[in-house]
Design a protein that fits this description.
Shape of chain A: globular
Largest sheet of chain A: 3 strands, antiparallel
Largest interface: A-B, 69 and 69 residues
Oligomer: homodimer
Helix content of chain A: 40-55%
Radius of gyration of chain A: 18 Å
Distance between the termini of chain A: 47 Å
Strand order of the largest sheet of chain A: 1-3-2
Chain lengths: 226, 226
DNA sequence: TTCATAGTTTGATCATAAACGAAGTATTAT
DNA sequence: ATAATACTTCGTTTATGATCAAACTATGAA
């Protein structure tokens, strides 16, 4: 009965509503200040501070001080992936926090998953890149093929710089709404950033929703078609 | 801030030590009675009963009544996968419940992950089957190739019967110790069962450890070599 | 029938930890 | 300097929920 890692501690950290709200807010990928997080969670600053301390102690979040502000973010991709997985389980069990609101359709369509694109459009990209042999689901990890490298470069991304990074280039991440994989890792982040750069899409304020322009969505569907 | 599914509820369910112990015990894949679970969790029967009711309400476990016994099990593979993912995160953060005990090496080597094989040997099987093109990591899901089907049949598994099942045949599941994928799904279960049948390995009582015989391990390493 | 075992329900107790106000530190703005 | 903002620390209050004993239901055994 005392085997393996302590899931109870992690569970209880995620299990508090205030902390869960903070973590969900951080799933937007943006680094947020303690004040912003306290607002998101609907609690006062002192309470938020205590919560953040606990999350930090478990290395679920990272912090960076900038002047009198303190910015918090998810510690790494894996934390985001696990949160997304838990959301998937919760969604499937019908444990939805609110009745399906107006935002939900948009969330399912395209949203940010910590730092990369999730939702139907995220899955579309993943499927397209697999179908065209840009990505190879070899072994456990994903690999970018030479074809894929050419394509991504043509899309305006500096692949070599990414590869020099310690961060894994390609990773798959399971989608809670579509229940399919989408692309995470350095490349996933770079692709999303580039799409913002190209003006294909923009972020909705304090939300995970990624709003594509009509043109942007058309381009995405074409250029990443299977 | 009120987007998406309610992760706090799931988190708090997993976050209680007693419930976490029960869920961990159920990760052995065996169905356990309420009494057994109360013993595993170190609590009295009434308390356990209350916990099980909550887990049931969230559809994390299933129950089956047999005479005056009530058997509990994890609701499905997805629950097991998420628990394993959380263990992975916890392990990486160094949130280990106990100092690395004698069982830990055995656990890393081979253990049961709900109903299939995990640990180094589980990963070995997965790698071997991928390398030999028995399994194709296509798209999101895994497919069993014709070669693979022949191999598995030769191993003594009735593939057709498995395929008629509603349950997905192949799924990958992330390993918390090896941080690599291993084979889950109907085929994963069937393979493990067959290995027990062949006498390659046996279960350690009330533990996730799968103990391979010297011969069994040798066979496994050879027959599933990359 | 009577007894024993398995599990549930109820009610009371108790500990934990979430919450906030107030006071304290640190950084920036005026 | 003074003030304002951003965050932390401390101490107190409060509510939640985990726990168990005792009583209750249901199934099986003698």
């Amino acid at each position: 009965m005392k085997e393996g890692p302590d899931i109870a501690l992690l569970g209880s950290l995620i299990g508090d509503p205030a902390r869960a709200n903070m973590l969900t807010a951080l799933m937007t990928g943006k680094a947020l200040t303690a004040s912003e997080l306290s607002y998101e969670a609907g609690i006062t600053l002192p309470t938020a501070s205590a919560h953040l301390k606990k999350l930090q102690a478990a290395s679920l979040i990272s912090q960076r001080k900038s002047g009198r502000h303190k910015y918090f973010a998810l510690a790494d991709d894996e934390v985001g992936a696990v949160l997304e997985a838990i959301m998937g389980l919760a969604a499937k069990r019908g444990l939805l926090r609110t009745r399906t609101g107006p935002k939900d359709a948009a969330l399912r369509r395209a949203r940010v998953c910590y730092n990369h694109l999730a939702g139907e459009l995220g899955v579309h990209i993943y499927d397209g890149m697999i179908a065209r042999n840009y990505i190879l689901a070899d072994d456990d990890s994903l690999h970018l093929t030479d074809n894929g490298k050419a394509f991504v470069s043509g899309f305006g991304i500096d692949v070599d710089r990414l590869q020099n990074n310690r961060r894994p280039l390609c990773k798959s991440c399971l989608d809670w709404s579509a229940r399919r994989s989408h692309l995470a890792g350095g490349l996933g982040t770079a692709l999303l950033d580039r799409m913002f750069e190209l003006g294909w899409a923009s972020r909705e304020k304090s939300s995970r929703v990624v709003k594509f322009t009509q043109q942007g969505e058309k381009q995405l569907l074409e250029q990443f078609a299977s």
